[in-house]
Every structure is written in C-alpha cells, then in structure tokens.
Specification:
Length: about 80
Amino acid sequence: MPEEEKQKKLSACSRHRYLYIPPNTPENFWEVGFPSTQTCIERGYIKEEKSPQGRSRRRQPFNALFSPKRSQKQS
C-alpha cells in the first residue's frame, strides 16, 4: 500500500480521536504516598494563620461541676 493511501486510511479510522479530547488529570494526581506538611502548605491544602484565635475558657472548671464531693453533700 502506498504511503498516501495509508495516511488516508489512518485519518479515516482515527477520526473519533478528534471529537472528544479527555481532560487532563489534575496536578500531582499520580503521586503515591502522603505529601509533607510543607508541601501541603505550598499547594494550598492547608491554610496557616499568622495569629490564630484564642480558645474560649469555661467559667467553671469541669472538676467543680462533676466532683464526687458535691454529690455527697446533696445526699
């Protein structure tokens, strides 16, 4: 078969490839394993705050609410 005919036949057979182009996989999709914390911060998976919010404190500590001495006094 001459080269020109091969090209015509090949373009006729492979026409479906041009109708649908599959999307590319996301960046770092095929990496195996867990990335380091620094890598996650660089990629934007982890947002690191410069000044984190302070934790709220309880008005009464838990041991005052649930102490066994208090339950004995009520009896």
